[in-house]
Protein 1
Amino acid sequence: MQIILAGPRGFCAGVNMAIESLRLAIERFGTPVYVYHEIVHNTWVVEDFRRLGAVFVDDLAQVPRGSHLLYSAHGVSPEIRRMAAERELAVIDATCPLVTKVHREAAGYARKGYTIILIGHAGHDEVIGVMGEAPDATVLVQTPEDADRLSVSDPDKLAYLTQTTLSVDRASVIIERLRQKFPKIVGRPKDAICYATSNRQEAVRTLSREADVVLVVGSANSSNSQRLAELASAEGVATHLIDGPGDIDLDSFEGGETVVITAGASAPESVVQQCAELLVQRFGAAVESRTIRQEQVSFPLPKTLENTSGMRGQR
Ligand code: SF4
């Protein structure tokens, strides 16, 4: 058996920043530190932080007045910021800057009177947050068919934005349909999807052509991990989205396969290594790393963590 570890894989700059922010917040402010939604969509990361004293909530009513509250990498709507201010919560904003950029664009378009087409998945934390910037001016489009069916009152004042973790290919199809239907629509086709999502998709697409099996390490609710699995599957390769080594069906291997292992942007490298190690032990697999594109992106920690007092009622 040969294992190819696809690169880049695993933690992106936004996830690194969010995880480090929560670790530092617990260290500096003590527990509990409340987190609005999961810090990132990964069961290992969430469970580790639960053990350290983080409390994950889906409703700010569960957070006692004056507590420390961290916003996850996926960001929050202005309404959540307003409620946090009302409850005098000390906010640590670990929203990924690339998500913040989408929020700013949504707010900017709405101010100028545009209707915003948000391409994304209903119910995803990032989508809920961005739609909250201009709920009355935003329409969610999930599929090319949604785009075909769309009707808007003023096609001359139309903008599109995308969830950062979509399939690059699928988003392009939807954007193209929107452009055909609404020639004056504005948006940024080149960096519609974030660098980490694009790079991980490019790597798995390229390497899956050599694979008999692709293992995508990531949790079932991780959007970018799901997209990696879909992409490898679309290349015609047997693909499994696995949370960790316990999900690997060892009996399905014969022992001579080439196995590509990748990981979604929220999946820890330690879990990837455990998965590879299991196949090494069982099948004597040889492990090789193959990096399609280098990444040197990092994001600064939230300003709140530069001093220990927190930003009460930050909006
Ligand atoms: S996947 Fe992209 S947008 Fe999401 S946290 Fe990572 S870098 Fe930020």
Protein 2
Amino acid sequence: MAFEEITRRGLVLLGCGKMGGAMLAGWLERGLSPEAVHVVDPKPSDWLQSTGVHLNGVLPEDPAVALIAVKPQMMGEALPALRAMSGGRTLFVSIAAGTTIARFEAEFGAQSPIVRAMPNTPAAVGRGITAIVGNGASSAAHLDAAETLLSAVGQVVRLEDESQMDAVTGVSGSGPAYVFHMIETLAQAGAAQGLPPELALQLARATVAGAGALAEASEEDPGQLRVNVTSPNGTTQAALEVLMDAETGFPALLDRAVAAAVKRSKELADG
Ligand SMILES: NC(=O)c1ccc[n+]([C@@H]2O[C@H](COP(=O)([O-])OP(=O)(O)OC[C@H]3O[C@@H](n4cnc5c(N)ncnc54)[C@H](OP(=O)(O)O)[C@@H]3O)[C@@H](O)[C@H]2O)c1
């Protein structure tokens, strides 16, 4: 299913906040006609109103895709608006963290194709990464369609099983916040060594962004990139001995942090 089918049958976007808005902006930039998009959102932003999409009107009965981008706690209130689209022809795509495929099958029936997706906040600048997994009724074409839509805000990877979603949440879903905190604490450490705080923050932010871009662009894996910048007995090695300590460094810390996120993701999914 390409944009042509969406143009013909329409796309419903339920919830147009940070994530929904980033996706909509990406689709429109890629040439999807605003005429094809029907948005449901109680408080549409000025930007949304300026796009020319259909807003809070009568929804098409048979849209190609219904994309759910409301907060998980709004599901009970929001989903009934889409119930008329269940039956198998409309593809449901959800980006809601922690809301399971079973929850959507209970609402729309197991015969409805449903793709659950977990994006992350760099989607706001088109640099997100989204993991997707489909239910039994979703075909390869449905997954391709979901991938096309979600690739408007970054990379897309496919999971073999929904059970992997909790770990994905712990790595890429929540991960941007870990990196933001790394920037904060690297800047604080620089300030503690005597740099003006603003300068320390500029250095830390550009270092993390630049190293991230290099790690993504390089053919070498991150471990090799690290070795490349670590001269024996040099400054980087001195710091890495602290950071790579098996008990007090990043390995143990990130292990515990990711495990805590995964545990919480499971608790939220269990209600
Ligand atoms: N942000 C992330 O990093 C991230 C990452 C992974 C997954 N997600 C998932 O993405 C989803 C959206 O997150 P977000 O950050 O974009 O949240 P958000 O900015 O709060 O967007 C949700 C939007 O849905 C609207 N809404 C509320 N009730 C509705 C209803 N009954 N019908 C239609 N629209 C309704 C909200 O309007 P009001 O503001 O007026 O309530 C808001 O505009 C969540 O399920 C979240 O779990 C987010």
